[in-house]
């Protein structure tokens, strides 16, 4: 049986309960900084209360958890009242226009044209192996059966096809 520390043995109370109280706060808030603040504030309020109260709390652990619960509720109310603060990085995707710019659309069309031209320059088996693997999501073994070649040959076809397309895109400045 573990004896509870005296209500005014703040150092022992902190060592005994701060980790569990932090886990409790984190479980409710899912924010490590906010939960650390709650734990710190809970202990500060506990100490302030025990110094001014006529009697020390009978159950310090319960009292600390009650303080932390109230602080968590206060944080929730404050956030609802103020709205949650967010960094610009967090909301950048929401602020950005989802439609690509005209320049981006033109660039993408030109890149597609160059890629399709490079694809059409490939020998039939290389082109087919690349398309079956990257578009149809077929495995090398499935492609090998379809083309009646070994899986290692399929790997070579795909590598040569990718290399050829990459060279053509680089030559076009893409």
From TrEMBL:
Organism, as annotated: Hyphomicrobium sulfonivorans
Protein known as: Uncharacterized protein
Entry annotated with the keyword Cell division: no
Coiled coil, from the record: none
UniProt-listed GO biological process terms: DNA-templated transcription initiation
Domain spans labelled RNA polymerase sigma-70 region: 13-82
Family statement: Belongs to the sigma-70 factor family. ECF subfamily.
Domain of life the protein comes from: Bacteria
UniProt key word Transcription regulation: yes
GO molecular function terms attached to this record: DNA binding; sigma factor activity
Keyword vocabulary terms for this entry: Sigma factor, Transcription, Transcription regulation
Gene3D superfamilies documented for this protein: 1.10.1740.10, Winged helix-like DNA-binding domain superfamily/Winged helix DNA-binding domain
InterPro entries, A to Z: RNA_pol_sigma-70-like, RNA_pol_sigma-70_dom, RNA_pol_sigma70_r2, RNA_pol_sigma70_r4_t2, RNA_pol_sigma_r2, RNA_pol_sigma_r3/r4-like, WH-like_DNA-bd_sf
Pfam family, one: Sigma70_r2
RNA polymerase sigma factor 70 region 4 type domain sequence ranges: 114-165
